[in-house]
Amino acid sequence: MSGGASAGSPVEDFDAVDLIHTKRDRGELSTAQIDWLVDAYTRGYVGDEQMAAMTMAIFLNGMSRTEIRDLTMAMIASGERMSFDGLGKPTTDKHSTGGVGDKITLPLMPLVAVFGVAVPQLSGRGLGHTGGTLDKLESIPGWRANLSNEEMFAQLRDVGGVICAAGSGLAPADGKLYSLRDITGTVESIPLIASSIMSKKIAEGTGALVLDVKFGSGAFLKDIEESRELARTMVALGQDAGVATSALLTNMNVPLGLAIGNANEVRESVEVLGGGGPADITELTVALAREMLALAGKTDVDVEAALQDGRAMDKWREVIRAQGGDPDAALPVAKETHTVYADRDGVLVQQDALPFGIAAWRLGAGRARKGDPVQHSAGVDLHAKPGDTVTKGQPLFTLSADEPARFPRALESVDGAWRIGDEGDEVLTGGPLIADRVGG
Amino acid sequence: MSGGASAGSPVEDFDAVDLIHTKRDRGELSTAQIDWLVDAYTRGYVGDEQMAAMTMAIFLNGMSRTEIRDLTMAMIASGERMSFDGLGKPTTDKHSTGGVGDKITLPLMPLVAVFGVAVPQLSGRGLGHTGGTLDKLESIPGWRANLSNEEMFAQLRDVGGVICAAGSGLAPADGKLYSLRDITGTVESIPLIASSIMSKKIAEGTGALVLDVKFGSGAFLKDIEESRELARTMVALGQDAGVATSALLTNMNVPLGLAIGNANEVRESVEVLGGGGPADITELTVALAREMLALAGKTDVDVEAALQDGRAMDKWREVIRAQGGDPDAALPVAKETHTVYADRDGVLVQQDALPFGIAAWRLGAGRARKGDPVQHSAGVDLHAKPGDTVTKGQPLFTLSADEPARFPRALESVDGAWRIGDEGDEVLTGGPLIADRVGG
Questions:
Q1: What is the pTM for the complete model shown?
Q2: A interface mutation test: which of B49, B222, B413 has the most A CBs within 10 A?
Q3: Quick one: which of A64, A112, A227, A327 has the fewest CB in 10 Å?
Q4: Residues B155, B218: one domain?
């Protein structure tokens, strides 16, 4: 049974089963209860089986805005909280909820850093069909993801941008809880996603944050209204914690760009940094850069010019070198490829994100279990995007893998996921790339 | 992802997260999926955290009748299945969902055995405020709960009745799952209660089974309609498995009898076996005995006569002796008592079961954690029942404990749980003791 609710006391003692009953029966947990729960779970006094029951109850019964904020703050309090106050320049960060072919962080970070705003991109590794930024960058010979806090701070000061692994000291409760959710079927919950993302980003100490909240077949949340609710929840959490936060709702029904994998996504990012590359990647990179710069107080800048005149590319090379990478080194290439060709003339009217993401994952670009290695050269390269006119015999997409035995299951996953129609048929993209914006 | 559904194959391989998603999203699990889940959980391949998420999803989203039957059969298949076929006489058993002062098994088992029907009462220990039959009987010097299967079989053959600990070989999956539910807040779920009870009872091998399904403040399920649903579910499970099964829905708003504890409940049971004791205990004992005998084919017997003419008492003494107990030995008495007296003349109009059950538990009659000892002499003795006329200064109830420090919290739990009103005031009993019957 609960004791009295003296505000802020960390020693107050609750019973885990009482708290589970409260959430199970659609009640609301108090700030003191959530503080206790997160602390007790981090220390191991509340077990994984109790937290698993609690997260399923949260998944099915939801949480109030107050509970979500309390959960976020409790997870932040479970670890260290960084500060970039001593940097002498504003900081701005971006977080994407994850998608297929989403390599936007790679061109975005140097593009924003060009304008004197520091970009501390603390990133993760992929799990399942959504790739991880660190996995992609590790395709570059010599590049290393793990920096000390001192190295990260120095690089932000001297170079202006960094993409590195989030230290385990940030919101360790979230790390533990995320691993648990992953194996207990409670990932796709707005309160749990929002508190997980925002606890790490607020603890990281960024001054501004832009959220790329995906919706559609290749996203965590399929429905745009659910994504809007997630975006609103996260923007409110950021603003409450003093972080200037906004969100773009972006369409993840179709793969982003033409490359899905690791090395091939780096290659495509470099094309965009050189002023080329697929139009959708450039469009989203520029839109997110404008948001990030605006939140950091820079509204009067020509973002697109920096892609065209080589400044973004120069910054990219500088950042890669600062982390030991060779921007001129050849990227790994797979031993085997398998190309699928158009069987008729017409228009590509369908290309679903999720099946192509799963294909890349099955080819070895992603991992099934935490800690597994990824194959940097594996993945899918698209040769046409929805709306493109195609002619019989032209290549539609190419699968790459080191082991040809991986092709059949990858091909199986894209079976029925693309279609060539006639001129005038509806092209199934699910609407524009950037559907909406949430924020002050 | 699931493999093909070849019926009955035990080696079929599923993914625990897929199964959790199915139940989380209100889908139905197949027979093969449930078989796999229970087997994999019993072997430890599916972890407690995954099963905790699954049980919370079952708690909140329910299970179909088919799923409940599959779960029951899978838990039976996790262990041994006994048979009393070689006994040469019918078998009949009773199970109560648990209540306050529920010692009915003690007078009931010998009463039924008098009529040549074997009664294999495989029982448990108490947890929380509901007492355990074995705990009560262990008040009797020398009596032992643990019998081998051979000893149990011999006693059923030679004496006709036995109350002993259910071996861990019966439905081990249920044992593991029940312990998990207890710490993860998923106890009060009809599919999980029904499959838990019925897996053990069907595995036990009884030919007939009467269920005493409680409702009211002192029961697992407060609402009679929920209890009716539980009863219907369990009766169907028993009948499907070839066990003649019926259920009585009985009122647990008021303590059963006058004794709540262990030794004092044995004392009261012996009074009933001698033809005396509280009217409610006798009424329920006789009603359940008639049900048990009828299901075993004995409809033309005078149950009450066996209480009056000493046959039930003789059988009791025989059974207690067969398990090493001395039916004539003095039962333990507590070192301290604390009596509460009527503060006015009037009628006792309220006496809530749950608070008095909690008081007995706090006095030491029950255990907070599995494996804790119980104090056999601790408990509550009521001196009046709802509807009784009382006079100022007469004792209302007496608390017994070895440590007087236990009295204040026990008194706190019954504060407001009883009330003396005026002649003509409504007496709050929640209706008749036996509210309904479910079964063929």
A1: 0.88
A2: B49
A3: A64
A4: yes
